[in-house]
Amino acid sequence: KLKEAEKQEEKQFNKSGDLSMNLLRHEDRPQRRSSVKKIEKMKEKRQAKYSENKLKCTKARNDYLLNLAATNAAISKYYIHDVSDLIDCCDLGFHASLARTFRTYLSAEYNLETSRHEGLDVIENAVDNLDSRSDKHTVMDMCNQVFCPPLKFEFQPH
């Protein structure tokens, strides 16, 4: 609009220059001056609006840049510091608890393995100590009534 007003002003000045050379009537001169004044007022108005809008634009751009920098700083702080702090706060000894749990499990497994080996050693000793003769004598001694010969049959007269 400002450029448009400037073009109109230039046209008006060109016309007024051409007309003044042609020596127009006296009645036309005040009309030209008033139209030139109107165009100048319109140009000044538009120039003022343009300057005002340019200033608003510059302020808005500066605000945008400040907000952008603040946002980037906040995001950077969040990802660099705050996330780590949040994880530390939520940890609540998870790793220590997990380590104790697995140590208990390992201890139980080692004890189970030791117990199995001891049981296997006991069985191995029992196998090595198997003796059929001594077992036979032990059984016969324990149940001697069953394995002892009965009394002899005697002759009984009628």
TrEMBL record:
Q: Give the start-end ranges of region Disordered.
A: 1-43
PROSITE patterns xref list? F_BAR (PS51741)
Judging by the UniProt lineage, the source's domain of life is: Eukaryota
Entry keyword annotation includes Coiled coil: yes
Q: Where are the compositionally biased (Basic and acidic residues) regions?
A: 1-13, 24-43
Residues in domain F-BAR?
Answer: 1-135
InterPro entries attached here?
A: AH/BAR_dom_sf, F_BAR_dom, SLIT-ROBO_RhoGAP
Which spans are transmembrane here?
none
Q: Which UniProt keywords apply?
A: Coiled coil
Q: What is this protein called?
A: SLIT-ROBO Rho GTPase-activating protein 3
Give the organism, scientific name: Neovison vison (American mink)
Gene expressing this chain: F5H5V9
